[in-house]
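Researcher: Next sequence.
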Amino acid sequence: MKRIFKYLLGIFVVFFISNSCTNTTYTLGDLTAPTGLAITAEIVGATTGSPTGDGSGDVKITITAKDALSYKVDYDANTPLDLVYLPTGSITKKYTTLGLNTYRITAVVYGKGGTSSTTTKDVTVRSDFTPNPSIVSNLTGGTTKTWVVDKSLAGQIGVGPWSNTSSWPEWWAAGVNEKVACCNCFYTSTFTFAKVASNGTYTLQVTCPDGAFTKTGSLTTLPGIPGSGAEACYSYGGGTGAFSFVPSSSGVAASAPSTKVAIVLAGNSTFIGYGAVQKEYEILVLTATYMYLRVQGTETGNAWYIKLKAI
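Model: Next structure:
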């Protein structure tokens, strides 16, 4: 009996060792990148006589490709790359730069195993816009009006997600006088908006007697700010530049509330309130004495909120 047991045990050991040494082969399958990538850009209101559209600035963008699993798009190659995820590969984009402008659309589609394909398309579209006269009157007083950040209000600065379904600083909001001790320049900088009567254009003069409240390096659009350092007041004298009114591009609903109008600053010498944001400030609320703005941060995914008062 012992011999039979040893014999069977030996067969089992040989079988186990033999199977343990067998290699399993894995394959990734076909990793061919998506093909046939194309961008279709339909300019809203375009006709034979007006090929650049009806002045709304709206363009219906559709991205197609064979074997595509997901889509991303950058709307303008003249600005820093910002690839936006498109769940269906289609979207209507509102271009808000006034006049006739050409934009280069970049599409990236992704396939199996993270493979990708990229293509671009140029589109020339016209954007015309005249804001409600009350917005101009409240902001400039008809000639010039100066504003400062209102430190007496809770939430004079705050931050939340950059999303068209969020219109309040749900991540953080400053308390009354919160920045006085660390960064009083935030409250002493002035912002003077002017309507130029001779030609109907607009200018913004920024004065910073105690410096500009901002982040540093690539997170600020202001010249002369150090390349590194914490958020703080940094030496900056201010500047003067043009600005224009455009339809807001955030997609936030009017009921948020929002006026659906934005201030777009030209150049890099001016800002409103905080120096680590981009150049389109959506006007959520504006009266003769109070202004509430929403603006995209230089850090991806941030929306900043700023409350100002007229002085």
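Model: The chain is about 10% helix and 40% strand. The helical segments are 2-20, 133-140, 180-183, 185-188.
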